[in-house]
Sequence to fold (383 residues):
Amino acid sequence: MSLTPAPPGATGTVHVGRQAVYDRAREIVGYELLFRRDAAAVTATERGSDATSQVIITSITEIGLGALVGDRRCFLNLTRDFLVGDLPLPFGPDQMVLEVLEALHIDDELVRGVERLVDKGYVIALDDFVCGQGYERLLGLASLVKIDVLEADTADVLAAVTACRRFPHLRLVAERLETDEHVRFAMDAGFDYFQGYALGRPEVVSVAALAPPRLRGIELLGLLVDNNLPASQLTSLIISDAALSVRMLAAANADALGLPVQISSVQEAILLLGGARLRDWTALMLASDSLAGAAPKQHSGAAIGRARRCQKLAERLGVPAESAFAVGLISAVAETLDEPAAVLAPRLSLSDELTEALVHGTGPLGELLSLVTAYEATDPPAA
Fold:
């Protein structure tokens, strides 16, 4: 399913899979969004942080949630990085259902991360729930539980249903229903929602993409670190690049942000999104675009991971955390561009403090970056 032809200047085509979720009347109540590398892909080849980042960027800023899911719920698989806050969620809770993947290790840090998301109003779903694997700790926080009917033994499915029914607020989703018999079983077992090939196969939605130039994204991130920066300067940078303008307007207009008005200009988008939300979108877009063709070890999770490490260390050392985040991210992206940060930084509209840290490694930010990169290189004396 292709929504638009490729416009002039498009850098390629992006793809997102979607599979419907139905209620007992077989009405569609939502769509699960799935990573797809190409239009012919039947299944996802990746389920990691990179895949999630690509789904978020493509769904909201390239295609638009309105075109993908309308006013229905949007189910999005999240890895641990997003759940514990190491990677940003640059959208609000409206319409979104955050799925906790089944392979994650449930520990105190993850539980605290899910608690924070629930406190912010996000709806949590547990994917592929099976009794006895530690996910019972999240049953009180989740609103939805997805149970695999295809692979599991019937007795195990019924045991999972019984365990979940001890929490009256939970709604159950039967997934991987591949035959009419599966559907009848799930109906009889009392499931609330249903998903699988017997009801509807995934489809791939494809659109032409306009990715902003990498350097423009890095420059925007550097400007966003300065909380006193005039909105007019941000606007000038964003509107100087068509792709960046389109993405920011799409992000601001997305229903998932829960904003009370529709945005009709870049200026309004900047004002209503605010600096923190703009930083999250810019960081995720920058890492996702810049690292899409990089080696497997140089992925968006690694880049934002360095930025988060710099940010957390800065908070302990009394160094500006937002500036530390920017230094970490820019240095990581520079590596993937095969261009030293010392060469890249002078070409950007960065503050003197950021430039000195990236070019000379001096000042509190430079020393902090050296500590983090030494830690990544497992250099105990330097660390």
